[in-house]
Write a structure and sequence with these properties.
Elements lengths: L1 H22 L1 H13 L1 H21 L7 H22 L2 H11 L5 H21 L2 H4 L4
Amino acid sequence: MLTNFYAKLLGLWILLAVLALALHRDATIAIVNAIFADAALGFVTGAFTLLIGLAIVLSHNRWSGGTLPILVTCYGWVATIKGLSFLFLVPPAEARLFAALRFERYFYVYLAVSLALGVYLTYGGFTRRASEAKPPT
């Protein structure tokens, strides 16, 4: 049941975020660049990302039961690691890591991957039967 909730929540959030990012490409790139240029923004981003990641990991650390629960768990772990990196990496290291991702160049590739994840999570969250959502006993 928690898998369905997280799949719906994360899936819809990703879909709406991808839509907004795609409609405002230049502003999105400027905002992301600003986050990596400002230590305070990076810290706040890291704190909230870590909070979300830990909430998912602590309440839904499931590595079985199909693709949907594993994806939700992976999302939680990725968010946790990302949040920790924002909090513990020094700004120059964060900037180098961000530069290596070539965000501006691969902007639409990142959005396409995110869109696919959002569609899968949303669809899975709304169509998964309650009997599949129960943890194994």
